[in-house]
Design a protein that fits this description.
Structural class: mainly alpha
Shape: globular
Distance between the termini: 50 Å
Order of helices and strands: HHHHHHHHHH
CATH topology: MetI-like fold
CATH superfamily: MetI-like
Largest sheet: none
CATH class: Mainly Alpha
Number of helices: 10
CATH architecture: Orthogonal Bundle
Radius of gyration: 21 Å
Length: 232
């Protein structure tokens, strides 16, 4: 009990004192997660919009794959990225393994299916409602997609926040492809696992509190956005 109390006090001290190692890990985590989220939005939203509007032979198969990928174990994604980026892999010449870039790629592979699959359902519902009107007005596909995105912006924002939550809390994939290297690829989740195994509970607790605060903040913001959209 005394050990826990001392670790808790030290954890709070690390946070309020602005410990450099602590905040270096936090900033790298946020940077990697936001970058992977941005890349996932750029790929996932257009893919979701395309699948929502167009009907073709392989559409149901692609949607099934996306839905399956939403539940793919992160360690499997990490293993796949590792095999591709390792020296003997097809992309080994890029020397990206054990870098933040490799972590971003792994996180994108986890987040893109979430954004693509959920945005497909959201935009498809709007498309069913408005497609006849847009056809009668001779609205182009691009303008229709932009209209759907603007109309569903609150629901899509919730999807994006869910993607960020997936990225910031990921540990398995980023540990495999990042290597958890100090001052280079050590993020909050991997640092918590490492410091706990070392017995450095104070740093692990401090990182855990920050991670919980970020997760709680994202969820509160998502609920606020949803309630605001419903009130409108």
């Amino acid at each position: 009990m005394q050990l826990f109390s001392e670790s808790l006090q030290t954890a709070f001290y690390l946070i309020v004192s602005g410990n450099s190692d602590l905040f270096e890990i936090i900033m790298l985590s946020i940077k990697v997660s936001l970058t992977s989220l941005l890349g996932s939005i750029v790929i996932g939203l257009p893919l979701g919009a395309f699948l929502a509007i167009h009907r073709f032979r392989l559409r149901s198969i692609i949607l099934s794959i996306l839905n399956a990928l939403m539940g793919m174990p992160p360690v499997v994604v990490g293993l796949i990225v590792y095999l591709y980026l390792s020296r003997s892999g097809p992309l080994g010449f890029l020397s990206l393994l054990y870098t933040p870039t490799a972590m971003i790629i792994a996180q994108m592979l986890l987040v893109i299916p979430i954004i693509a699959a959920l945005s497909t359902q959201i935009i498809e519902d709007l498309h069913i409602e408005y497609r006849d009107l847009f056809r009668s007005l001779n609205v182009s596909t691009f303008k229709a997609i932009m209209a759907y995105i603007i109309d569903a912006r609150m629901s899509l924002l919730t999807v994006i926040l869910a993607g960020f939550g997936r990225a910031i809390s990921e540990v398995g994939a980023v540990s495999i492809v990042g290597g958890n290297i100090d001052h280079l690829t050590r993020v909050m989740t991997t640092a918590i696992a490492l410091e706990t195994s070392r017995g450095n509970l104070s740093l692990a607790l401090a990182l855990g509190f920050i991670l919980l605060a970020i997760a709680l903040g994202v969820n509160i913001f998502a609920v606020k956005v949803k309630n605001w959209a419903m009130d409108k």
